[in-house]
Amino acid sequence: MHSFGLGLRKPHYTEFLGTEVPVDFVEVISENFMIDGGRPRDILRQVRERYPVALHGVSMSIGSAQGLDRGYLARLRALVGEIEPLFVSDHLSWSSTPGFNSHDLLPLPYTAEALSIVCANIGQAQDALSRNMLIENPSSYVSFAQSEMTEWEFLRAVSDRTGCDLLLDVNNIYVSAVNHGFDPVAYVAGLPLDRVRQVHLAGHSQGENLLIDTHDKPVPAPVWSLFAHVIERAGPVAVMIERDDNIPPLTDLLAELVMARALLPRKVAA
Amino acid sequence: MSLLVLQSDFRAWLETGSAQASSAFAPEAQPGLLVYQNNYRASLMACLEESFPRTLAWIGGRAFRSVAATLIDARPPDSWSLDHYAAHFPVALAKALPDDPEVAELATLEQALTEAFVGPDAVALTADDLSHINWDTAVLRLVPTARMLTVTTNAAAIWSALASDQNPPAAAALTTPAQLLIWRAEYTSCFRALDRIEDELMGDMDNGIAFVDVCRRLISALGHAEGIMTAGNWLGRWTTDGLLINIA
């Protein structure tokens, strides 16, 4: 059975807490709540009483050659313990080197060395959290000549080695496919779709030379089309609209969820 | 090239944007590298603008972004939390604008209020709690978000005016430095000025101070009748303010 949710954003707190929003779950950015206390944590506790919550991270930096930040893991573990989330996810990317944190989801070369490092880091995180993580495919603007495998081959290997599940961002597949000139259908065909637990849908913008993963627009037609292709082949997944900028009224996002439901294959749409 | 070296080269590109740093990557990577560098600087700039809205309003976007850009050039972020980067900005303002000390003090106040907003939770004592306390042995402690801040300018008045959409006063030096108390009452960050005696007591309350010692010190400073009355008044105010925890 598929489920449908939204990213919880500040402009919608009141509606999520004061009304019955027709979603099966919400997703929050983990780092926004990895704080000591105060109103944000209280709001998350209240939301959790009403909806299942997925924790989506942006700062674990699972591709860092230096390894993971233990302080970060400890904070995330505490949050996981309190919220008992539906999923804990982060990205196939890196952010930090010794003494530096870019606060961006930077691309990895898909090499055997990187695979070894990513798997070790995911293993460490899953041990610390005592649960499986979902790893999300990134959108990227640079690829590396030294890559020895495709991104989908890399993701498959990561999942095989660590047992982690996947968060498939359909917009990210589309953005990277356009930017790097690969076939998004071949990408989907190469993935272990039985490991996909969650799907992100979002919008993007046209930059000067590249598509940019801005999450500031409605889901565009090519992403809906690719989603229809994915959902026909995937098992039960949690589908979510991910909007991070130019946040529209909640009704607009709920309308996008209606669209997502409408694209389910007939056999499971009921 | 090892992953560690690649990541070090990528960092150099993000920090400097120099031709030398970009030469570590293939020519076809250049458009993408520019996207990442723009994202890096834009996210830090946005973090500072969102963290210091009053300071931004006070000095204007051009001056604010000039100091922010200098900080971004000089000091890369090193924490997983982007919010931690904001803590460096008041010092950067003090260095960049030494003749306008109210700017750095305004930013320091904003930062302190933000830190209090997400600081540790604590259950503050209420007026009802006070009736069950043995005052001969009671030890007063402050909520964990409480901290003191010394100001030499009218930055607090500027903050208050900006926060209520009033015309802020002109910047002015105080005749003597003042102490501000910053804390979070339930879910709202607060601050107020302290007088000299209250400031001394607050400093000791960080680690706990016996209420009888509070009374003794006030009596010593103000005389018996006024000292006892002041102790009672302050206890009431500290309770109303949501400042006290764990009277034991």
UniProtKB/TrEMBL annotation, chain A:
- Pfam families per the UniProt record, alphabetical: MbnB_TglH_ChrH (PF05114)
Database matches in InterPro entries: MbnB/TglH/ChrH (IPR007801), Xyl_isomerase-like_sf (IPR036237)
Q: Which domain of life is it from?
A: Bacteria
Q: Which family does it belong to?
A: Belongs to the UPF0276 family.
The name of this protein is UPF0276 protein FHS92_002362
What organism does the UniProt record list as the source? Answer: Sphingobium subterraneum
From TrEMBL, chain B:
Q: Which Pfam families match?
A: DUF2063
Q: Which domain of life is it from?
A: Bacteria
Domain named Putative DNA-binding is located at: 6-90
Q: Which InterPro entries match?
A: DUF2063 (IPR018640)
State what protein this is by name.
Putative DNA-binding domain-containing protein
Species: Sphingobium subterraneum
